[in-house]
Design a protein that fits this description.
With 243 residues, this protein is mainly beta. Helices cover 11% and strands 43% of the residues. The protein has a single domain, classed as Immunoglobulin-like, CATH 2.60.40. The strands form 6 sheets. It has a 5-stranded mixed β-sheet, with no helix packed on it. Strands 16-5-18-19 form a 4-stranded antiparallel β-sheet, with no helix packed on it.
Length: 243
C-alpha cells in the first residue's frame, strides 16, 4: 500500500515537472487589425553625472587613449540612449519586424559598436573585429549565449541561428581590453525596442489591452510601469529613471 502511494506521488511530481516548462505559452504571431501604439521618451531625473574615464592600458597605438565611458549616454535634453523597453505580459500579436535578418556587432577602436543591441531568438549574426589587434570576445548570461573566443584582427566570429534559443540578457566584454563592455538583449516578443540617442522609443501595432512595461538599462537597472493601449490609439508613456 505504501509503495503504491509512493508511486502515485512520484508520478504526480513527474507530471508537474513535465507540464511546468511545456505549459509556458510561447509568443504567437497573429493578425492585429485594431492595434494601437506606445510611444514616449526615457529621461534622467536630474543632471547627468560625469562619465567615468576609462584607462586604456593595452594596445594603446591601435585602441587610442583614455576615454569617457559610454555606459550611460544622456543627450543635452536629458534623454537616455540604449534603454530596452518591452511589453512583458503579451503572448500574441504582430510578426517580428526587426529590420535585419542577421545582426552584426563590431569592435572598433577597442569599443563595442553599437554598445547595446536588441535581437530575436534564433537569429544568426556575426561579431566583427575591425581593429588591428586581436580581441577575446567573452559573453556572460544565464544560459542565453555563453562564449569565450579569440577573434583575430580583421576577422569575425559567426553566430549560428541555432545558438541563441532563449530570451534574456547577454553581457559582452573583452578579456584583453578590460574597459570594453556592452550588452545584447534577446527579445521575448517583437514589442521590444531600444531608445534612440534622445531617449525616444515607439512600439507599433500593439493589440488593445493592459500591459506591464519592463524597462532595463545596464547602469540604471530595471523597473516596470503599467499602461493601457486603446484600439487605434497612440498611448504616451514617459519614463523617468534615477541616476
Amino acid at each position: 500500500m505504501k509503495s503504491q502511494r509512493l508511486l502515485t506521488l512520484i508520478a504526480g511530481c513527474l507530471f508537474v515537472f513535465a507540464a511546468g516548462p511545456a505549459a509556458a505559452a510561447k509568443y504567437k504571431v497573429v493578425s492585429v487589425t485594431d492595434g494601437g501604439s506606445i510611444s514616449g521618451r526615457v529621461t534622467l531625473n536630474g543632471p547627468a553625472p560625469a562619465p567615468e574615464i576609462l584607462k586604456v592600458d593595452e594596445d594603446v597605438e591601435a585602441c587610442g587613449g583614455d576615454r569617457p565611458s559610454d555606459e550611460l549616454l544622456v543627450s543635452g535634453g536629458g534623454g537616455i540612449q540604449n534603454v530596452v523597453v518591452r511589453i512583458e505580459n503579451i503572448d500574441s500579436g504582430k510578426d517580428w519586424d526587426m529590420p535585419a535578418t542577421e545582426f552584426t556587432y563590431d569592435q572598433k577602436k577597442c569599443s563595442f559598436t553599437p554598445r547595446v543591441i536588441v535581437i530575436r531568438p534564433n537569429m544568426a549574426g556575426a561579431v566583427l573585429n575591425s581593429d588591428g589587434v586581436g580581441h577575446n570576445f567573452h559573453t556572460i548570461s544565464k544560459g542565453v549565449f555563453n562564449i569565450n573566443k579569440k577573434i583575430q584582427p580583421g576577422s569575425s566570429l559567426a553566430v549560428s541561428d541555432k545558438k541563441i534559443r532563449k530570451s534574456g540578457l547577454v553581457n559582452t566584454k573583452c578579456d584583453i581590453h578590460s574597459w570594453m563592455g556592452g550588452a545584447w538583449w534577446v527579445a521575448e516578443n517583437p514589442y521590444t525596442v531600444l531608445s534612440d540617442a534622445d531617449g525616444n522609443f515607439t512600439m507599433s501595432n500593439v493589440p488593445p489591452g493592459k500591459y506591464k512595461i519592463a524597462i532595463w538599462h545596464e547602469k540604471l537597472g530595471e523597473s516596470t510601469q503599467e499602461v493601457e493601449v486603446g484600439a487605434g490609439a497612440d498611448t504616451k508613456l514617459d519614463i523617468v529613471l534615477k541616476p
